[in-house]
Design brief:
This protein has three helices and 16 strands. The protein has a twelve-stranded antiparallel beta sheet, covered by helices on one side. It has a domain of about 160 residues: Clam (outer membrane lipoprotein receptor (LolB), chain A). The longest helix is centred in the N-terminal third of the chain and has 15 residues.
């Protein structure tokens, strides 16, 4: 059976700057010093990873409905570019987010603008996906905020935590340039966290899950402007 260590954080997680990156202090309960030190060292490495490209598959399901897409996600600091190919995006969807806001352009050349990638994805595709938090979660990190039930394996990697009304589970990791990064991430909304509505206005309830299978990571991507 997989060995895990349980941490619980009941208060707002503070964020402070350490060597140019944010670090999340935590308050352990019954945590071995080995597990604690491994997690802190591992999380500092992950927080320093602010430029990357990941590619893989994303599946979103609510109740009996769902869709999948091939995903390419590029990040350089505060600049994100997310490209979705397949039925999930109705063909091809490109989302760009930076400090000025976010824009979604679909395969019909319709453009949706908003403050965040999460907002324009809801406008353009109709799915509620917490992309601000997901930018941390895909790296194996909790986002700044309230955190509960952090479980660690014997190597100091997160296997589960609860945050912002979502349950986050890590099913597999892979080594990338001496850094362990997630290969399979599963998130599920707790009851009452989201309300999903279909394009025709049908209320689909509050059940929503997102499964991400990451095929490849690159921590030194060349920013590519895709052709439209």
């Amino acid at each position: 059976m997989r060995q895990v260590t349980r941490w619980r954080i009941a208060a707002l997680v503070g964020v402070f700057t350490l060597a140019g990156c944010a670090r999340l202090p935590v308050e352990p309960l019954s945590v071995s010093s080995d597990s604690s030190s491994r997690w802190l060292a591992h999380s500092e490495q992950l927080l320093a990873l602010s430029t990357w490209t990941l590619s893989g598959r994303m599946a979103v399901r609510t109740g009996e409905r769902g869709g999948t897409a091939t995903v390419l996600w590029q990040r350089m600091g505060d600049h994100h570019q997310l490209i979705l190919f397949g039925p999930f995006g109705g063909g091809r969807v490109r989302i760009v987010e930076n400090t000025a806001g976010a824009e979604l352009r679909d395969n019909k050349e319709r453009v949706f603008r908003g403050d965040t990638a999460e907002a324009v994805l809801m406008k353009g595709v109709g799915w509620h996906v917490p992309f601000r938090e997901l930018g941390f979660w895909v790296r194996g990190l909790p986002a700044p905020g309230v955190l509960d039930d952090l479980l660690l394996d014997e190597r100091g990697r997160a296997t589960h935590f609860s945050q912002s009304g979502w349950e986050v589970d890590y099913r597999a990791y892979r080594e990338v340039d001496d850094l362990m990064l997630p290969a399979k991430v599963f998130i599920a909304a707790r009851p009452g966290t989201v309300r999903v509505t279909a394009a025709d206005g049908t209320d689909l309830g509050d059940q929503l899950s997102v499964r991400i299978s990451i095929r490849a990571w690159n921590d030194e991507p060349e920013w590519a402007e895709p052709s439209r």
